[in-house]
């Protein structure tokens, strides 16, 4: 009688379909996966440790580099945590600008996901479509913040600067055209037989399992849980916007695809509302602890000069205590937990990375399925290793 | 605020002797409990029909070196039913181990591995306690306060033998 044996194969870390440096060790029985062990940490930079040696302002650029497709959302989660710690109220205009940028960023992040995900499965065309629109968003960011991938636009107490002239027209053109573009992606995919065969009933995770494994974001909503941080704990005036949370039913790759497409449309609607109702108020709080004084005052008044020097050199001190603030980032719930000892830098900065926990549930999704489905499942949970490894 | 009290109230009722401190800061409730009861308390919070903290949002370590007990392990729980977050903490001495909550929330599997990797806090009954971000054989735990930011081998570059 022939003897059967499991075969172990190594996938990654330099594999184009693992979206970064993720290594999977797969134990196979023929083409069926018996066991999958993810190995992470190849991109570990020690962001949490670095933050302990920096002032509160200096941490903002580090957050851009966590999930580098969602920099605005990362900035937002961090500044919300610091503002909560300090008890600062942010002006309405700044809150609306933050929402606008975070939602544009969500669109850009989902566009990267869509392009690369379908490319993994074998469709080469959509990535050219999605990167075309993503470029529009990045051009908007470049004008608004000066940076494309890592804009570092948000500040503690507000945003770095107001919108430049003529940008509202560009944003308006973008949000007018975007729903048409989503239809274009859908004509390529939603009814495509090959796409359906590769995604339907693949990489399923049930509602209860998704909750138990700590999965958040579109991956959780794909399993039919109607939960979103923007609705559960509204931040930055999200309660004033009209939007719905799309959910799936089965929890397979197709549902996660469907949820993200609908989410892009809702993000577009939120940007539209924010642009229409943008309040006229300052873009930064007037709390002297965190805000640099007016430049003219700095050049003419010694007290303001000293004030500026102090904020730039030693930062500000925060009250003793601990806070947790989170946002609905493109991948899920991104949270920052800050423990403060009353000094000018965080005593402990803990990042709750959504991709980390979503990836933790990957073995649950792929064990028992075909090896070819691993690629589409990894693509569907939309991981970014910069955030997982921190 | 009614639900918030109910969670703490229920804990007080059930685990009277185990609660060390209840703090509220910026609207967030933190309950510090005895280390030995953490598994039972988590199990209760997860299974109680009125509370149903079914979601483990986060689990992390904090190092208070040179204080004793040195570490804290922080559990951030969320309940879909009452839409509430509750933070539960335990204090852990260096070298002590903590009962794993992996059997309650699978999410704890990787989170506990991370706390073990970066702080050196070990978890009992964890099915697969290995380093997660750093490689096997790495010496030291980087998020400890006595670990230098630039790393212990900053001025000793590794040159492989050819």
Secondary structure layout plus pairing:
The complex is a heterodimer of chains A (390) and B (162).
Chain A: E1 7-11, E2 23-29, E3 32-39, H1 47-51, H2 60-64, H3 71-86, H4 92-121, H5 126-145, E4 154-155, E5 158-159, H6 167-189, H7 193-199, H8 207-212, H9 218-222, H10 229-232, H11 253-276, H12 295-300, H13 302-314, E6 321-328, E7 333-340, E8 348-352, H14 354-360, H15 362-366, H16 372-381, H17 385-389
Helix pairs in contact in A: 3-4, 4-5, 4-11, 4-16, 5-6, 6-11, 11-16
Chain B: H1 2-14, E1 19-25, E2 28-33, H2 38-47, E3 55-63, E4 71-79, E5 84-92, E6 97-99, H3 108-119, E7 122-124
Parallel strand pairs in B: 2-5, 6-7
Antiparallel strand pairs in B: 1-2, 3-4, 4-5
Word description of this protein:
The complex is a heterodimer of chains A (390) and B (162). Chain A contains 17 helices and eight strands. Chain A has helices at 47-51, 60-64, 71-86, 92-121, 126-145, 167-189, 193-199, 207-212, 218-222, 229-232, 253-276, 295-300, 302-314, 354-360, 362-366, 372-381, 385-389, and strands at residues 7-11, 23-29, 32-39, 154-155, 158-159, 321-328, 333-340, 348-352. Chain A has a three-stranded antiparallel sheet with strand order 1-2-3. A three-stranded antiparallel sheet of chain A has the order 6-7-8. Chain A has a two-stranded antiparallel ribbon with strand order 4-5. In chain A, a hairpin with a 4-residue loop joins strand 6 (321-328) and strand 7 (333-340). In chain A, helix 4 runs antiparallel to helix 5, helix 5 runs antiparallel to helix 6 (167-189) and helix 6 (167-189) runs antiparallel to helix 11 (253-276). Chain A is globular, with a radius of gyration of 22 Å. Chain B has a single domain, classed as 2-Layer Sandwich (Beta Polymerase, domain 2). In chain B, a hairpin with a 4-residue loop joins strand 4 and strand 5. Chain B is α/β, with parallel strands linked by helices and 162 residues long. Chain B is elongated and about 65 Å long. The A-B interface holds A 40-41, 44, 46, 48-50, 52-53, 84-85, 87, 209, 211-214, 225, 227, 232-233, 321-324, 326, 333, 335, 337, 339, 347-348, 350, 352, 356-357, 360-361, 364, 389-390 and B 25-26, 28, 30, 54-58, 60, 62-63, 74, 76, 80, 83, 85, 87, 105-107, 109-111, 118, 131-135, 142-143, 147, 149.
